Amino acid sequence: MVLYFYHFYSNFFMIVINARFLTQKITGVQRVAFEICNRIQKQIGDEKVVFIAPNDVIVNHLKSNSNIIFTGKFKGQLWEQIDLPLFLKKNGNPLLINFVGIGPVFYKNKLMFLYDLAFRHHPEWFSYAFQKSYNFLIPKSLKNSRRIVTDSNYVKSDIIETYKIPKDKIDVIYAAPSTQFVNKGIKKEKIILTVSSIDPRKNLKRVIESFNKIDSDYKLKIVGAKSKTFSNIGLNENVLNENIIFTGYLTDEELIDAYNKAEIFIYASLFEGFGIPPLEAQACGCACIISNVTSLPEVYEDSVEYFDPNSVENIKNKIEDVINNKKKIHKLKELGIKNSNRFSWDTATFKLESIIKELI
What we know:
Elements: E1 2-3, E2 15-18, H1 28-44, E3 49-53, E4 68-70, H2 76-90, E5 95-98, E6 110-113, H3 118-121, H4 128-143, E7 147-150, H5 153-163, E8 170-172, E9 189-195, H6 204-212, E10 219-223, E11 244-248, H7 252-261, E12 262-267, H8 277-283, E13 287-291, H9 296-300, E14 305-307, H10 312-323, H11 326-340, H12 345-359
Parallel strand pairs: 1-4, 2-3, 2-5, 3-4, 5-6, 6-7, 7-8, 9-10, 9-12, 10-11, 12-13, 13-14
Helix pairs in contact: 1-12, 6-10, 8-11
C-alpha cells in the first residue's frame, strides 16, 4: 500500500524507516535493508511501521503490504537532511531506523546502521565528494544516534576505537544469504566467479593478474558494476583476455544462476565489514577462497581457504592449490553450506526487534 500523506496518532507508537534505499540498486547494504524490512512489519505489526521515501523513481519494491509515504521536494542527501527530518518533526519525532547512508545528521531519535569505516581508513578508494561528506557527517550522525547497529564485531571494535563511542551503544547484527540463494544441484562448470562492485577495495586488479599467471582451462567471471561513489583507481585494460568475462550488474535470478554454475568463488576484498557475496556463494555450493583481512575470518571461520589480498603470488598459489585438488573443492563446498546455515535474516530481524523495543 502506497500512501502520499499520513498522520501519526498519539495513541500509537510508530517506527519510521528511511526508505531512500528503495531508489537504489541492490548491493550489500541495500540487501540488508530489504531483507530486514520485508520481515520487520510482521514482527512488530504492520500498523506500527511506515516507510518514508523521496519522490523519486522506485527501483526495487518491498512486499505489497508495506506502508510507503512519499514526501519532500529534494532527492538524495538533501532529501535526507532536509525533507525527512521536517516530516519527522511534524509527526511527533518518532523513532527512525536508518539502514543505508548517513541518515539525517541532527535528528536524535534514531537507530543508525553503519557497515564499515573504509571511507575513514581508505579515503583514496572513494570519490572526493563521497569520502569528504562521509568523514564530516558520519561522526556527527553517530553521536546523535540513540543506538548504532553494525554487521560484525570487527566493525564494532573499529567504531569504538575510531570515534570513542561507548560499546553499550553499539549492537552487532550479522547479515545472511537470502533464502533464494540455494544449491540447485546442477553440474558445475570450470568457472572462478567473483561478485562485487567494481571499485578499488574489491581488489579485482590483483585477482585478474593472479588469474593470468595460471595455466588452466578455467574462466574468470566478474559480476558487478561501476559506481560514481568510487574513485577510478583499479583495473588495467591491458591485463584482460578472452578467458575473463565481465557481466555487469545482474538481477538476483541471474546471480543465483551464476553462483550455481561456478565451481569456485574468489573474494579478494581489502576491507569488509561483513562480506555477503561469499556467503551467497557458499549457499549455492561454491568452494570459496577469500581474503584473510578485517571481518572475513570472523564470518567465515574454517569454511574457506584464505590468502593475503595484497600478494598476487599468494592469490595465484591459492587458486592453483584449489583448482588442482578436487577433494579440497568438495570439502570446501560441504563446509560452505554448513557455514552459510549459521546465518539467518529471521534471526537478524528478531535481534533488531529486541533493540527497537528497548528504545521504545
